[in-house]
Amino acid sequence: MTSAAWLKGLPVAHRGYHDLNKQVWENTLSAFARAVEAGFAIECDLHYASDGVPVVFHDENLERLCNLPGDIRARTSKELGLISVGGTSDKIPTLQQLLDLVKGQVPLVIELKGREADDEGFAESVLEVLEGYEGKVALMSFDHWLLRDLKALNAPYPLGLTAGGNKPEEFETHEKAMTLGLDFISYFFADLPNPFITAQRDKGVVVITWTVRDENARKHTFENADQMTFEGFDPRVSV
Description:
The chain is an alpha/beta fold and 239 residues long. The chain is 31% helix and 18% strand. The chain has a single domain, classed as Alpha-Beta Barrel (TIM Barrel), CATH 3.20.20. β8, α9 and β9 (227-230) form a beta-alpha-beta unit. α1 (29-38) packs parallel to α4 and α5 (122-130) packs across α6.
């Protein structure tokens, strides 16, 4: 296993330290710069553009964030780099642009957003961009095939399962993923505590939560996990 102990150290800003898409929008260079300035770790999402370049974006389509029709994967990274996010001056960034901005100043927790049977080369492309980057990086996904690909490629970063749920059949699915030899878990805070997470923590697996938006959720996280992914407040002050 690759040590993921450093994930315990800093609160993780969900899609960057945005302001709930009022002026600073999620997964933008502005949100990431704001997180660096505040000293928070950064969580972000990657999709696979049509030219084989990883881009930082959450949704599968452009409607909610860009007020445009269309599939994020149907466009090249250059085309996406011209599209405004939320009507702001921020455009859809590539993973490389994120790395060039952060420069190892804070840790990165990167989620790969998969699409089954359409992810050939995705894991490889992410690792190629990350090669030589000097800074803490962890990679995670809901999608077991991407975790399997990253593991098969000997990814030199902590690998994590993004998950939620509190039913036995869900735990069974999660346990299958953990047999890959994953290093951490990012779990939905409201589904804690549960037997699956308790057993994983007993084995020394680091657990962070998503997505904490108030003091009650923060308190619940630290009763049941090691660190939180947060948005909508400043965890440096009590809320």
